[in-house]
Write a structure and sequence with these properties.
The chain is mainly beta. It has one domain (5-266). The chain is 13% helix and 38% strand. The protein has helices spanning 5-18, 102-107, 132-135, 250-260, and strands at residues 38-48, 51-52, 59-60, 66-83, 88-98, 110-116, 119-128, 161-171, 174-183, 189-194, 204-206, 213-219, 244-245, 264-266. Strands 3, 4, 5, 7, 8, 9, 10, 11 and 13 form a 9-stranded mixed β-sheet that branches. Strand 3 (59-60) and strand 4 form a beta hairpin.
């Protein structure tokens, strides 16, 4: 039986957060005295346009291709709450989100738990990828969700795959595979889901008790919205140059990275 990656990493992240040295915001995951934080559930909802995204289900993309995803994984890191003044309050940790986990299909989202001080915030920010320092450490010294056994490590070119997206598309000659393994430091994507200017200074409230849920929609239809020409959508069924990359070809890596920057938005 396959062990749930997300279940293992929830415990890992709680332990990492519990070891934070932020003196102004002491964290104690066991609820001992001095713990002034509350639990925050950060939920990623996989979508394809307005539809719920499920692996192995077919969807029609902007280029008119019928596509289905067979694997989607990404590293979540550098999560931070954005306070009412626009300052970042970091919640350290690196997590591996596997949208193929059975729990995601069951509940409709992948969830990780954070802790933060009760109060009002403009939103939060996060990165899709591994911080530079961790990306270049000796993988043999790292443990899950990093390390050579993570399924996300390039042994032939040391470093991690930040965002793994694999699937199939229909073509005139039958099904063709597509696979985008986005990595390298300059392809880490930073997402800001906070209103930094204007009157909407308070968009997220963390309560001392009760549920605190921040939902992020991950719309994978946007992965195909712009192709290599920079104008028209990808056409996987007829353009083999848009189907596969690892660390090259560079133009396709740059394009899929740019497309994923538009993928994440604040959910309901």
């Amino acid at each position: 039986m396959r062990t749930s990656i997300i279940s293992l990493l929830l415990l890992t992240f709680a332990l990492i957060a519990g070891c934070s040295d932020n003196d102004s915001n002491p964290i104690d995951p066991h609820g001992h005295s001095g713990d002034t934080t509350a639990t925050i559930a950060l939920r990623f909802v996989p979508k394809f346009g307005e539809q719920r995204l499920l692996l192995d289900k077919k969807y029609l993309n902007a280029g008119g291709d019928s596509v289905q995803f067979t694997a989607i994984r990404f590293y979540l890191s550098e999560v931070a709450l954005i306070d009412s003044l626009g300052a970042s309050i970091p919640a350290t940790g690196i997590m591996l989100i596997d949208l193929g986990d059975p729990a995601v299909a069951e509940h409709g989202y992948a969830e990780v738990k954070l802790r933060g001080a009760p109060g009002t915030y403009r939103g939060l920010s996060f990165s899709i990828g591994v911080p530079t320092a961790d990306n270049h450490k000796d993988a043999a010294t790292q443990s899950l969700p990093l390390g050579p056994n993570s399924g996300m490590y390039w042994g032939w070119n040391p470093g991690y795959i930040f965002h793994m997206i694999e699937g199939k598309a229909d073509s005139a000659s039958g099904s063709v595979n597509f696979g985008y393994h986005i990595g390298e430091d300059n392809h880490k994507v930073t997402v800001m889901l906070a209103t930094l200017t204007g009157p909407a200074a308070t968009t997220f409230t963390v309560n001392a008790t009760g549920e605190n849920i921040f939902t992020v929609d991950a719309d994978y239809s946007k992965l195909f919205a712009v192709g290599l020409d920079g104008v028209t959508p990808m056409k996987l069924s007829t353009n083999a140059a848009e189907r596969v990359h690892h660390m090259s070809p560079k133009n396709l890596v740059d394009r899929t990275t740019a497309n994923t920057r538009t993928m994440f938005s604040r959910g309901n």
